[in-house]
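Anyone opening a protein record will find just a pair of labelled lines. A complete record is shown below as an example:
=====
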Amino acid sequence: MKTAIFPGSFDPFTVGHFDVLKRALPLFDRIIIAVGDNQNKKTLFNSEQRKAMIAQAIRPFADTVTVLTYDTLTVELCRVYGAAFIIRGIRTVSDFDYENSIAQANVTFAPDVQTLFFPSRPEYSFISSSIVRDVLLHGGDVSALVPEGVTILNAQLCRFS
């Protein structure tokens, strides 16, 4: 069984993340979306809220895709679940530089785990979780920026008064 880990902070999960997931689905028997906390980022939603939002968005793929939270190295998570692949989306050249450095470090710790980069489709290249958070915090409509399930949960979770 080919298993991949799709790690990220996903604060929140965007249509860009969802597009990467859908494009990766035909390549794997199972994809695990791993919601983690990045010490360099201040999140708007806690990890359980992010997990719940993603769970709603991935319902159509529930037989192949699962979501969980984690607080370990991604390569350790790969070992636990027998995943030989890490999925990463790339929007910009700076994303590539950052992700490539991490992929190279991961090879040091787990030479059998490969990182696959999925370049963003042009229509999603401007969308980042940071932009979505900013729009949310200013009372804007994020329905075009997040999958349907995420929009529904955002309405329930966001009470910025």
User: Anything to note?
Assistant: Helices lie at 15-24, 47-57, 74-81, 93-109, 129-137, 148-157.
